[in-house]
Amino acid sequence: MRVGIIGGTGKMGGFFRGVFERAGHEVMVTGRTTKLHNQDLVEKSDVIVVSVPIHTTVPLIRDIAPYLKKDQLICDLTSLKEGPVNAMLTSAAEVIGFHPMFGPGVTSLKGQTILACPSRVRPATFQRLASIFRDQGARVVVTTPEEHDRLMAIVQALVHYSTLCMAETMRLMGTDIMKALECTSPIYRIEMGLIGRLLNQDPDLYGDMLTMNPHVPPVIHAFGEATTHLRSIIEQGDMQQFREMFSDNATTFESYQNSAVKETDDLIEFLVNR
Fold first, then answer.
1. What is the CA radius of gyration of the chain?
2. Tens of pLDDT along 188-222?
3. CATH class given for the domain over 2-143
4. What's the whole-model pTM score?
5. Residue ranges per domain, the chain?
C-alpha cells in the first residue's frame, strides 16, 4: 500500500511511519516543512493517516475530505473519536478511527494497545490494517466513537485531571519536591513519577483531551462531589463513614484488585532492583 501520513514529521506521525515501513509499505509524509502538500499526498495515497494535534484534526479532515475517493481509506490517530470520525465520514473514502494508547516515546508496538473504531470500512480492509499493528505486538481493541469518548473521559481525562490537581496542591502547599522524594517508598515514588511524567509533556495535548471531550464535564463534576464527600468525612473524623466509603469502592474494584496488587508489586520490584 501507499500510505500518506499528514503530520508525519511529528513524533507520533514519525513513529507510525516506522510501523508502516517495517510492514513493507511505501510511506509519504507531509508537515510544516515538507514540499509535498496535503492535497498531493491524498491524491497519491491508498491510505491517508491524519496525525495532527486534536484541535486541528477536524478542520484538516474537512479540508481534505472533498479529494478522497471510494477506493481510499482515511484514518486518524487522535485521542478523541466522535468529532474526527464524523468529519471523515463526510468523505467518499472508507473510514477507521484509531487511538494509540501510548506516547511516541515508545520503542515499538510490543505490548501496546490501539483502540479502533471501524466506522465505514470493509472487514478485509480493517483486518489488513489491524494485522499490521498486531504483527508488531500491539493489541487492537474495537469500540465505537461514542463509547470510546465516554471511556476516555474516565481512563484519560479523570486520571489526568486528578494528577494535575495533585500537582497544583503540592505547588499551593509550597512542597519541596526533592525533599518529598527522599521520604517516599517505591509505591509513592511511582505516584510522584506519574505527576512528573505528565508535567514533562505538551500541555496543549492534555488541555485538548480535557476541554474538547463533551463527556468530561460530568466526570469532573462527579470528582468534585467525591472529594467534597471524602473531605467532610475526614474533617468530622467519622471512621464509620470512611469504612463504608472505602468498602463501596473496594467492591467496585473487586474484579481488578488482585491484578492491581500483582502489577504494582512488579513495578516496585523493578524500581528496587534496577
1. 22
2. 999 999 999 999 999 999 999 999 999 999 999 99
3. alpha beta
4. 0.91
5. 2-143, 147-273
